[in-house]
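Lab notebook, bench 4. Still working through the backlog of constructs that have no structural model yet. Next entry is a single chain of 283 residues. Request: give me the structure tokens for it.
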Amino acid sequence: MSESTERVCMLCGRPESRSLYICGPIQEAHGISGHIYCLLFASGLFEHGTQTGHRRWDFPIENIQSVIEEAARKRCFVCSESGASITCRESGCDRSFHLPCATEGECITQFIPPFSSFCWEHCPQMAVDVVPGDNTSCVICMEPVGDRVSYSTMVCLACRNAWFHRSCIQENAIHAGIVCFVCPACRERNVFVVQMLIMGILIPLSLPSWITEDSPEPEERHSRCDARECLCPGGREQVEEEGSWQLLLCCSCAAEGTHRACSNLGDSTTSWAVRRLCWTQHR
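Model written out:
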């Protein structure tokens, strides 16, 4: 199967250019196009697939045709449109949905074999007996997280102290990749990654987005404060090793920075959010 950016997925109905990253690239064979994850999550299709490379799978054409025909008879319980190829794994539940509709419908899709999917009623719950304290903020975007664990509010089971929004930790995972994805607060990896996979977070099998062939050498790294108002007496270019004028860089792109004092960050602060989807960990 070859990838195509021109085709429309025959399962969810979205082209690759307009689909969420959770759908993956479009593959095409014998005139049939489908997002790789739409195919993998389609009920009964994963068992007949063969992985041929990173995010590349082969599926028997007759199985794909069967899934498309069956999905055409089902309506997504979220958007009410036909073509819902994903059905809740819970025995006896007939709720079906499109992969791009999963988040809106508070469904969980586990991006690991056997690519199980669950509707809002039967999705796995976080086994935690702690609740956020008053005014607890997301460690990534710094916005309030609410007063309890929910579909959109999550907590690290390793430290039980880092609270974050589902959308924020998903963006974090996309940027960090499997190599660098850890709890933004305690930096624990093993328990955290397993927990996030079970709860439906897609963790790409890739290097972090900030590591590229043309990444700047250490001496070329960003070295100025980009806060809306820089308070440093020496200006945006002044950088110190510690204290108020220590510079924290965005870990997703390393292209923006802030002095601790310019973003009202104390000396003990280890995370910083920028544009609601980037975070940095300074060690």
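Notes after review: The first strand starts at residue 2 and ends at 3. Residues 214-283 form a domain with the Herpes Virus-1 fold (CATH 3.30.40.10). Flag for follow-up if needed.
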